[in-house]
Amino acid sequence: MSIISSGTRFRQVYSDDDDGRCVMSRYGWKNALATSAVLAIAGCGGGDNLSTSGPHHVSDIAVPNVAAGVNFSFDIGTVLGSRYYFTDRNNASLDEIDIPSNSFVKAIQGSGPLAFTGLGPGPSSQSGPDGATPVGNLIYVGDVNSVKIVDPASGVVKSKITVSTTGVRADEGCLDPTHGIFMISSPEETPPFATFINTTTQTIVAKVTFTDSAGQPTAGLEACRYDPASDNFYVNVDGSTANPHGELVKLPGASIRAIPSGGTQNYTTLAGVAMYPEGNCDPTGLALGPGNDIAVGCREGTTGAPLLMQIFNRSNGALLTSLNAGGGDQLEYDPPTNRYYNAASRWTSSGNASTNGACSAASPCTPVLTIVDAGTRTVVARLNTGNNAHSVAVDPATGLIFVPYSSATSPAGCPACAANGFVNGGVSVFAAK
Q1: Which of 10, 36, 281, 407 has the fewest CB within 10 Å, making it most exposed?
Q2: Cis omega (within 30 of 0) on the bond before 336?
Q3: CA-to-CA distance for 332 and 340, rounded, in angstroms?
Q4: Within 13 Å of residue 335, how many CA atoms lie on the same side as its CB?
Q5: CB-based burial, 224-258: b 16+ in 10 Å, e otherwise
């Protein structure tokens, strides 16, 4: 059986595989409409009763100073109340979008010492803003050398917390709301370290360095999550001597709070610490799922390696399943739909990593939003997205999904993006159902 929706930005072909399971065998998009096009996905089913419900594209939202040919540099997104926020390096801002109207509200920019770094002259490690995490009614935003604290209600950067002076970024963070502690990683430091901030006093209470048990700095740090049920922080480590392509590290909250105020301790010496090997993963995103599940997004740098998303038991590190669903950066779990959403900007038509894991004209990527059922731990949908679409956030109230993307031609490596209708760059909005 095949289903083709023509005259829209969307084309999907489904088929029944040899053992009778319904699978999506090919993805393509054609005949671009305006950015307000509403798409419907038809899923496989018995007989001729085809469902018109399912995850689908809703609209695109323009971003100031982002257009065709512009390389749009953005990072992490989040939802707070009825607004979606994401970090925008082109405009050196935290951008705000109104969810009910799907419209751009403003770019929140600081000034003077509170200004975001922006693109800067160097690599992404010297650019900002980066991570964005709601902390009460505020948003803590990683930037070069610091965490900037944004008050969305007034649309201003209120203050900053300096975490280093080396000219590299404080990247992604996570919050322990029970004890009022915010963790943020500085992956390009030598060695990498995480800073823990008291959210009441907005002061640094501890730092944890990441030198492995062999005495070598780890390869870097990626996303982190806090699990209130077990009082543990979890963080993806890019690589260690024992696990060169990544490990999931469990940092007990009690051990963090036991560090003397303002002190520094290495992660291997924390009481109760655990390091779970992730295999050939090169991890990025991280999401707490139902029960004891924790999902890890992999973005393999090994040419031709399967692009994986792995789900572990976060209590003991046991691997529960490994899905060919990686190639992303930000990974989110949405409880109302009981699904994971992976912004797989480096997905390919083969499901294997492109050359050295990077998209290029010679080794192209086919970016998708991968949706995984957290109950069955299976892929349920892949929706084509725009160029370098590596950030995702889900509004649990409306089921809307927000995915920024760059123009079709910049950066290079997505030859199908223009044909798929993702031309100018901005924010794509999808519906979970």
Answers
A1: 36
A2: no
A3: 6
A4: 4
A5: bbbbeeebbbbbbbbbbeebebbbbbbbbbebbee
Of 119-123, 162-166, 260-264, where does mean pLDDT reach its minimum? 119-123
Kindly give, in sequence order, each residue whose CB lies less than 8 Å from that of residue 290, ignoring residues fewer than 6 positions away.
335, 338, 374, 375
Q: Are 70 and 55 in contact (CB under 8 A)?
A: no
Residue percentage of the chain with pLDDT more than 90: 86
Calpha distance 251→308 (Å, rounded): 24
Report the alpha-carbon distance of residue 385 to residue 7 in Å, rounded: 18
Distances from the Cα of 316 to the Cα of 46, 230, 293, angstroms: 40, 12, 10
Q: Any residues with CB less than 8 A from the CB of 46 and at least 6 apart, and which?
A: none
CA dist., res. 230 & res. 172, Å (int): 21
Between CA 382 and CA 27 the distance in angstroms is 8
H or E stretch at 97: strand 93-98
Number of continuous H segments (helices) and E segments (strands) in the chain:
1, 31
The model's pTM is: 0.88
Q: What is the pLDDT of residue 317?
A: 97
The one-letter amino acid at 82: S
Cα–Cα distance list, 121 to 89, 124, 128, 164, 167 (Å): 12, 9, 12, 19, 12
Residue pLDDT, tens place only, 239-253: 999 999 999 999 999
Locus of tokens 């699978």: 23
Specify which residues 24 forms β-bridges with: 14
By residue count, the chain amounts to 433
Residues 366 and 410: their CA atoms lie apart, in Å, by 14
